[in-house]
Specification:
The chain is α/β, with parallel strands linked by helices and 380 residues long. It contains 14 helices and 12 strands. The structure holds glutamine.
Length: 380
């Protein structure tokens, strides 16, 4: 068997969810809502299941969904996206894989920011590339031009930007986006932009994609997720967006990963994207759950880092007076307090990982959040 996988640890999300299942713990680790999907989305799915074909849809996605995705971004982010540039994938994780396989050749270096979602680097390595991590520092996790310039070499081919950023819940500023676009155009880099949290922002500002910056349309792969927009993570409907010529190449990678995505789910997502009230109801709801988690934790004396986006908020253990590193906290809290969390250092490669921060998921009923906070407060 391939040593790369034989020696690879289980992803932290499955590890913590497995512990939560086995121990009957409240799972604030892996991000997923407990609420049922919006009724209009379920209606669309029931209709598609009854009325539409259950056979292979087109490899690049249903044309109706590709057009709906283009309309969604025209409406919400003022982006002019050609439907031919949209490839429907089986979740954003598959979009990340297809993008990396389609962009990275052996020996290419790819810039990443730490902390980073754990799927990027293993796939870059599997493609023969070399991940080069640039650390972001708490509490603001800001992008530092000097560090980026220092990491660039003649082999640098691409940059991965996750904005809004999981696990921190922070945003790239307009100045950050302008700077990153300058870096990409000056060094002829492709930007792989994981924007799955674009609809889960609480700052009142619409999401701005790196794709919209000058010079970026032809060199950006923008990745999105119906699972995150509608809170249906198990549907595994995602997409990648690129200039049509680039999308055609990335589709060659996609065709041998999953080939297609279940058509009834694609129809339901297309209907959902055309009803702005559904996505709005979802993000309004998550603004409530985010406040409930942040306020409850603060009330119980936990020091929380600000979260402007995503389903997550972070606790600063050191500032909370908890003398445990993040992995020890997560392993003990799930067993003893019966609350699962994600240690931030599990999403960090390279030296100097912060070891005093854990991530909690807030998109849960308030009563469950209260119970989890109480259990953590009694145990700490
Ligand atoms: N994106 C999810 C999270 O950060 C995890 C998804 C997964 O486990 N594949 O919690």
């Amino acid at each position: 068997l391939a040593p790369v996988y034989r020696d690879m640890p289980l992803t932290v999300f499955e590890h913590m969810s497995g512990l939560a299942r086995d121990l009957g713990a409240i799972n604030l680790g892996q991000g997923f809502p407990d609420d049922p999907p919006h009724p209009a989305l379920l209606n669309a799915l029931a209709h598609a299941t009854a009325e539409k074909s259950h056979q292979y849809p087109p490899m690049a996605g249903l044309p109706e969904l590709r057009r709906a995705i283009a309309r969604f971004y025209a409406r919400t982010q003022h982006l002019a996206i050609a439907p031919e540039g949209v490839i429907v994938t089986s979740g954003a994780t598959e979009a990340i894989a297809a993008a990396i396989l389609g962009v990275v050749s052996p020996g290419d270096e790819v810039l990443l920011f730490a902390p980073a979602y754990d799927a990027y680097a293993p796939m870059i390595r599997r493609a023969g590339g070399v991940p080069v991590f640039i650390p972001l520092r708490p509490p603001h996790w800001g992008y530092d031009r000097t560090a980026i310039d220092a990491a660039i070499t003649p082999r640098t081919r691409a940059l991965v930007l996750n904005d809004p950023l999981n696990p921190t819940g922070t945003l790239a500023s307009p100045a950050d986006l302008a700077m990153l676009a300058q870096v990409c155009t000056a060094h002829d880099l492709i930007a792989i932009c994981d924007e799955v949290w674009e609809n889960v922002r609480f700052d009142g500002n619409p999401h701005a994609s790196l794709l919209a910056q000058p010079g970026m349309a032809a060199r950006t792969v923008k990745i999105g997720s119906a699972g995150k927009i509608f809170g249906v993570t198990g549907w595994k409907v995602g997409w990648l967006i690129a200039a049509p010529e680039m999308a055609a190449v990335l589709a060659r990678a996609h065709q041998f990963l999953t080939f297609t995505t279940p058509p009834m789910l694609q129809w339901a997502v297309a209907a959902g994207l055309d009803q702005p009230a559904i996505a709005q109801a979802c993000s309004d709801r998550w603004a409530q759950t985010r406040s409930a988690l942040l306020e409850g934790l603060s009330r119980e004396g936990f020091a929380v880092l600000d979260s402007a986006a995503t389903w997550f908020a972070c606790i600063d253990l050191a500032a909370s007076g908890i003398p445990l590193d993040d992995r020890t906290f997560a392993e003990q809290a799930v067993r003893e307090a019966r609350v699962a969390s994600i240690p931030l250092s599990a999403l960090w490669e390279g030296p100097d990982a912060p070891r005093h921060i854990v991530r909690l998921c807030h998109c849960k009923p308030e009563a469950l959040l209260e119970q989890a906070i109480t259990q953590l407060a009694r145990w700490r």
